[in-house]
């Protein structure tokens, strides 16, 4: 599809003659979860999130803590990528740790808001979280960094994430420098390693239904508590 003018696209040939039909034949929302009665949903979303997450873990959902983090750059353009959820807390919300000088770190400095999306296909469940983003205290970031595998710490210490490169030797050399740095200072934590929290003001729980009568419950912060609203599927 080629962009023509803002908001419109020109439809051209599919990349593969059969692709459209192949995509249409693929099953979707084949998973199932225990019945979800929104009338019995807890008064606040953290309890329901924890219940759903624990159920996903017990059900053997692969990487249930992987979530799509969406941020916005200085021009208003959205960017999204998958990250690991590190914790969920009653005061802070949903936590993740990244370098503040990476692309997403810079976007969070400019626009400290984000959306998170969890999707667990086997259960037909999606959870959407959004709200302002705050920085956690430095000791949380330090503990996160020190718990990371060596390779991950070495890569972070190159301080180059999301930058373009053309030479493998350049990457190898930066990693060797980082490895030497860590060998002399094993507890080193780069200043830019940052733990962030999405302090949700909106959380939506979505449960699929085979007849497409999906259930959607949206929680919104209001007056020190939360409102719960059913949304049309
Ligand atoms: C399952 C999965 C988990 C990931 N976990 C992380 C993570 O915890 N931290 C991270 O920095 N990148 C993680 N990544 C890589 C990011 O998706 C992405 O490559 C990187 O953050 C680039 O972001 P940016 O250029 O928009 O700043 C993960 C990718 C996948 C597919």
UniProtKB/TrEMBL annotation:
Superkingdom of source: Bacteria
InterPro entries: Pyridox_Oxase (IPR000659), Pyridox_Oxase_N (IPR011576), Pyridoxamine_oxidase_dimer_C (IPR019576), Split_barrel_FMN-bd (IPR012349)
Domain Pyridoxine 5'-phosphate oxidase dimerisation C-terminal: 193-233
Pfam families hit by this protein: PNP_phzG_C, PNPOx_N
Magnesium listed as a keyword: no
Molecular-function annotations in GO: pyridoxamine phosphate oxidase activity
EC number: 1.4.3.5
SUPFAM superfamilies in the record: FMN-binding split barrel (SSF50475)
The keyword Magnesium appears for this protein: no
Alphabetical UniProt keywords: Flavoprotein, FMN, Oxidoreductase
Pyridoxamine 5'-phosphate oxidase N-terminal domain location: 56-168
Names of required cofactors: FMN
Family as reported in the entry's similarity comment: Belongs to the pyridoxamine 5'-phosphate oxidase family.
Name of the protein this chain belongs to: Pyridoxal 5'-phosphate synthase
Lineage: Bacteria, Bacillati, Actinomycetota, Actinomycetes, Mycobacteriales
């Amino acid at each position: 599809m080629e962009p023509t003018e803002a908001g419109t696209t020109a439809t051209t040939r599919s990349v593969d003659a059969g692709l459209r039909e192949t995509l249409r034949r693929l099953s979707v929302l084949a998973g199932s979860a225990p019945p979800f009665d929104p009338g019995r949903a807890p008064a606040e979303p953290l309890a329901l999130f924890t219940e759903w997450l624990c159920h996903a873990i017990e059900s053997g959902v692969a990487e249930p803590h992987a979530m799509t983090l969406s941020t916005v750059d200085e021009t208003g353009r959205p960017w999204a990528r998958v990250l690991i959820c590190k914790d969920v807390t009653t005061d802070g919300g949903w936590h993740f740790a990244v370098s503040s000088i990476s692309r997403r770190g810079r976007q969070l400095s400019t626009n400290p808001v984000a959306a998170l999306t969890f999707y667990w296909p086997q259960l037909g469940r999606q959870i959407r979280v959004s709200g302002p983003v705050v920085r956690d205290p430095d000791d949380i970031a330090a503990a996160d960094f020190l718990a990371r595998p060596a390779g991950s710490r070495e890569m972070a210490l190159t301080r180059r994430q999301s930058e373009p490169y053309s030479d493998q030797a350049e990457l190898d050399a930066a990693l060797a420098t980082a490895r030497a740095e860590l060998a002399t200072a094993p507890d080193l934590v780069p200043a830019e390693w940052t733990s962030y929290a999405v302090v949700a003001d909106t959380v939506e729980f979505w449960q699929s239904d085979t007849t497409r009568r999906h259930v959607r419950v949206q929680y919104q912060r209001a007056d020190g508590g939360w409102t719960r609203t059913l949304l049309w599927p």
